[in-house]
Amino acid sequence: MKLFYGITLFSFILLFLVPGSFSFDNFHQPFPIVEPDYGHTKLRLATQGLEAIQRITTPIAAVAVIGPYRSGKSFLLNQLLSLSCNEGFGVGHMRDTKTKGIWVWGTPIELDIDGVTTSVFYLDTEGFESVGKSNVYDDRIFSLATVLSSVLIYNLPEMIREADISRLSFAIELAEEFYGRVKGQDVAFEPAKLLWLIQRDFLQGKSVQEMVNEALRRVPNSDGDKNIDKVNQIRDSLAVMGDNSTAFSLPQPHLQRTKLCDMKDVELDPDYVKKKEQLKEIVASIVRPKIVQGKFLNGKEFVSFLEQILDALNQGEIPSTGSLVEVFNKGILERCLKLYTEQMAKVVLPMQGESLQKAHEEQRDTAMEVFEEQHFGRRHARKSVDQLEEDIEKVYKNIKLANEYQSSTLCEALYTRCEDKMDELQALRLPSMAKFNAGFLQCNHSFERECVGPSKSNYEQRMIKMLGKSKSVFIKEYNQRVFNWLVVFSLVMVVLGRFVIKFFLVEIGAWILFIFLETYTRMFWSAESLYYNPVWHSFLATWESLVYNPILDLDRWAIPICVIAAIFVFYRRCYGRMQRGPRWSLPVYSNQRRSE
């Protein structure tokens, strides 16, 4: 017997330890999804209720009931869900409010909406105007319910007051910012449909729609009261939103309100029961799956959406539509900025500033067009647009800095290469004006062609100064170096004419050149006057033709040619004589023998 009880107890414990074993029963109760913080001014998430929503994989719709505290919101929700007070939302009869924050019924109602299986959650909200709370806290509850829900039931007892209309200012701002923003078939964001629910003791007299129309009629304001003007603006906006709102009246279920939870439907007022069923049908007919940017939200996406909204509403001292617009547009801003950055990354740097500016403007316009197609909001979206433009300008500023750096690096490398080239031409063993000019032009052209970007103008000035200085120095030294080489050449030809070639005319000509350069010029011409003499120009023309021409660059090949010539002469002088010696000496040697 003890063993049986032990097994039973162990099995009972396992049922509670195994996750999901009581998933349906566990979620068949209300859970908080948002609760007040310790100061009762801001809101925070509650884990239990979020788990109840996150498990849903089908599209979600939410029906929220808002209104003053002690107005019967929780009882109304229990009636819509066909639940008793013991199993449904908590119903209080004391002066303090029973519901804190926002609660959700853990088991949604499955509806087929336009062929889409939709899980409809019912939300109970903390009543406003209760003792010990600030108006800002009420505004946060009201705002959150407005954004989350697909149907917003505004539960009001007896009549519509000015304060009730004023509280709709946030809902109006949402409608003006988001409602009707359609791109093709995709709805970016559609606020909740407003259902005016007036609970009153008697249904005689004006209809509820007449009551709503009368309450929304402009109030004369001859004194220019700002508060009246503000409420009148809300009235005008609500009148424009006529297609997005519905009015319905509901009689009191019973005169003994404190005993409503103990009564069954048969004990309630028959008119109330009938109207309650009609209200269920109306809610089912107007509820739609929650759509954000053209996409149905499942459980996890709905919770993520809730987290974003809550962060936005808690940011400022007062919840605002602008803060919600910023939160909704945050992801779109990031995508558009990423699009701009990726496209600009394809631009090959460095490039001219005008071309970079043109590419920037094209990609910026593309990003702005994408944002215009996808963004949330209308008036308050201007701030998001400004933010996107500011972020794009920051990225473009960095790109411009990178362009300037790469341009400077490239032009500096080209400048250094040209500078080295000029130094190399300055140090030619055999100076040639034609070769210097060719290198000068090649360096200048390559710099003009390859140096691009914003640094080009600065380096062009440096390039002009450097090339001009190099050319003036080369010209200054050119005549003297050529003169020295001609003197050396004349001496070399003297030696070659006498000892190598052994041709008298070559030696004489070399001596004449040497004497002319060293003696005659010093006696009759100054060095400067020589350089302007036609005879000297003739020498230079001959020198340029020999040293640098399309066929031969003597400065490069002088040493190899001299080595080859020396080897050839040595070969002719030594090996050539040895080969001819026997042929010439043998006959001489033979004649001598014969004479003996």
Descriptive account of the structure:
With 596 residues, the protein is of the alpha/beta class. It has 20 helices and 13 strands. It has helices at residues 2-17, 23-27, 47-54, 73-80, 135-148, 162-166, 169-178, 208-215, 226-240, 270-286, 299-315, 321-345, 353-374, 381-426, 433-450, 456-500, 504-524, 527-531, 534-547, 554-595; strands at 30-36, 43-45, 60-66, 102-105, 109-113, 116-125, 151-157, 182-183, 186-187, 193-200, 245-251, 291-292, 295-296. The strands form 3 sheets. Strands 1, 2, 3, 4, 5, 6, 7, 10 and 11 form a 9-stranded mixed sheet that branches. Strand 1 and strand 2 form a beta hairpin. The longest helix has 46 residues, at 381-426. The protein is rod-shaped. The protein starts with a helix and ends with a helix.
Write a brief structural summary.
With 596 residues, the chain is α/β, with parallel strands linked by helices. It is built from 20 helices and 13 strands. It has helices at residues 2-17, 23-27, 47-54, 73-80, 135-148, 162-166, 169-178, 208-215, 226-240, 270-286, 299-315, 321-345, 353-374, 381-426, 433-450, 456-500, 504-524, 527-531, 534-547, 554-595, and strands spanning 30-36, 43-45, 60-66, 102-105, 109-113, 116-125, 151-157, 182-183, 186-187, 193-200, 245-251, 291-292, 295-296.
